[in-house]
Amino acid sequence: MASRPAGMRKSRLLAFLPNLTLLLLLILAWQFASTVWLPSIDPHMAVLMPAPTTIARTAAGLVLSGELLFHLVASLKREASAFVVAATAIPLGVAMGWWRLVYNQVNPIMEILRPIPPLAWIPLSILWFGIGDVQNEFIIFLGMFFPILINTIVGVKNVDPNLVRAARSLGAPEHKVLSRIVLKGSLPQIITGVRIGLGVGWMALVAAELVGANSGLGFLINDARSMLRTDTIVVGMLTIGLVGLLIDSAIRVLGRKFLPWSLALSK
Amino acid sequence: MGHLAIKNLSKVYGDPDATGNVVALRDVSFEVPNHQFCAILGHSGCGKTTLLNIAAGFEPPTSGSIAVDGVPIRVPGWQNTMIFQDYALFPWMDVSQNIGFGLEMKSLPTHKRHDFTRHYIDLVGLAGFENKFPHQLSGGMRQRVAIARALAVQPHLLLMDEPFAALDAQNRSFMQDELVRIWQREPKTVVLVTHSIDEAIKLSDCIAVMTRRPGRVKQFISVDLPRPRDEDDKSYLKLKRHLRALIHEEVGNQRP
Questions:
Q1: Does the beta carbon of A164 lie under 8 angstroms from any beta carbon of chain B?
Q2: Which residues between 13 and 72 in chain B have a beta carbon less than 8 angstroms from any beta carbon of chain A?
Q3: How far apart are the C-alpha atoms of B29 and A229, rounded to whole Å?
């Protein structure tokens, strides 16, 4: 019995492998272009397009020296601190979704601020906070806040009105209706908002670090540019993509584990 | 405990004095004695759901009064609890948590809550399914959970909004028998809304037949057939013909 899931996973992995054929071919073509084709045209151009083998070697070096981990941790710390502040979007969103008065008053402000891209805040934020963690976190916070807020509002508004009525009809006072029914019922949508928010925040993070930081993955790739280390740039880019994917998957898995009743999350 | 008295009840949506308002109920009066089962029978759009919503405290009436044992109904609460057509079970709670929710709201001590929950799980025949979540249950079983959840709070008045509409014919008939069995074990004052003549006769002590909008009580009929009700019985068929004629009159009235 216990071996069956493992066996199934193995066979599924085997079935997936053929899907990587194109990717493998492209990497081979890339390798050929970087080591044979480009140098034959102009040796200097090869620098702009580091070969996959070079990238792998650089990645191993960056991992072993601890440099990559140092910058990764710096970025993750910023993402985490910004999220702690951006999580205030959840109570605000619940209040906006539940009380019409709060919505009517706060929504106009949000509608003005929301379309401004987080990156447009960079100049002002540098003047406000100087270059450093706070400025970076502010930009990341702006990227996270609105997806979380909007999804929370939608989640609260979409809670089945019959569940609210059923709770009241069973004698639940208003604060219990809010905490036990509305908040719980909107959790799947809130988690979706957190997923999107962390993703947007991660993108904003890299941009913020490009401009105003002396650590982090964004700094790493920008710093490498000034020394023409294209291999380091690509390693940094791949790390950014991979970690973004991991954060997203982690939230998905957590959501499915803790809200097994949610049909939206099990998809 | 549970004498329902409805007196000159009217409900108008929109400004009562303006044109273009909708009169959902007009001058509805009837009484349901304690522990009687009353069906409200009528076509869709006759205001029967509005009447139920007022009885549940979800909407206020425009005029008239509605009271249980002389206490006017103003807000929703366990005293006048409702069972919904789509069951409205809390998807994140398992069967016993769903049934225990109202008891928790009543601040019953934990051991008492467990005893009550246990009792109602057994009464509706859900033993063995305590830890299942609503999405893991069939329609009939979800309806059992909804019935147990409503009965557990010991309501003075139990309201049911077409509770079997979402079930297939076989399950519906079976659940109707189950409801009668449960109701006979634990008598309650019940008001059930339905558009099915058979359902009304099979379940009720009294039937309020509603007119088309604006909804009024066209006729209030006492049903004193012995239970369990036999669908081939002469008086059953006679009552059925009578009700069908009343309902058909209403369909006819609607045509211009």
A1: no
A2: 56-58
A3: 87
Tokens of A235: 């390693």
Binary contact (A162, B88; C-beta < 8 A) = yes
Task: Give yes or no for a contact between B24 and B215, defined as CB atoms under 8 angstroms apart.
Answer: yes
Considering only CB atoms, which chain A residues are within 8 Å of B92? 184-185, 259, 261-262
Domain around A30: 1-49
Q: State the total domains in chain A.
A: 2
- Domain with A109 in it: what CATH number? 1.10.3720.10
The tens digit of pLDDT for each residue in A198-219 reads 999 999 998 899 888 889 999 9
The topology under which CATH files domain B4-79+156-254 is Rossmann fold (3.40.50)
Please check whether residues A43 and A63 belong to one and the same domain: no
Local structure of residue A158 (DSSP, 8 states): T
Calculate mean pLDDT across residues A80-106. 96
pLDDT at A267: 59
Q: What is the Cβ-side half-sphere exposure of residue A138, based on CA atoms within 13 angstroms? A: 19
Same domain for A57 and A38, yes or no, is: no
Based on the domain organization, do A68 and A30 belong to the same domain?
Answer: no
ipTM: 0.91
Residue A256 forms contact with B (CB below 8 Å): no
In a shared domain, residues A97 and A25: no
Please tell me whether residues A44 and A167 are part of one structural domain. no
Spell out which residues of chain A touch residue B89, defining contact as CB-CB under 8 Å. Answer: 166
Beta carbons of A142 and A119 less than 8 angstroms apart: no
CA-nearest of A31, A37, A33 to A52 is A31
